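Input.
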Amino acid sequence: MSALLALAACSPGDSQARVDPPPTPPADIAGFCAALHKELPETVAGLARTPTEPESGLTAAWGGSAIVLRCGIPKPPKMADPKQEGVHVNDVAWLLEKLPGGEFRFTTGMRKAYTEVRVDREHATDAGMLVGLSDVIAKTVPEGISSY
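Output.
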């Protein structure tokens, strides 16, 4: 389970976010993630983009570790549970998981690459931060079922 979680060792004011990149995905999925990475916004929920450590085209962060994105993750087991909660934002379906400590993890569904966004407790009060990310995901990651 810890392999699916981004490790955050920085506070929102820090200059880098420690993020475990997902295992190297297949080439087609890595291509979708590269396209997504190029289009990611400089701010999310008013938080500036933060460099990730290690640097990876599969990860991004805003506000230190307040909001952490990982693209190309394997299919989460909870994606198969029909009782799981989800939200739709601008044509992107998101699996919603509340994590210990009040954090949330949102994972895209029905896209050729799974993308996970982990949000700390302080910034998890409004799913509106998914709007800009959903727009970019809809633009760069085609609809469909991921092969990974």
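Residues 43 and 49 are 6 Å apart (CA to CA).
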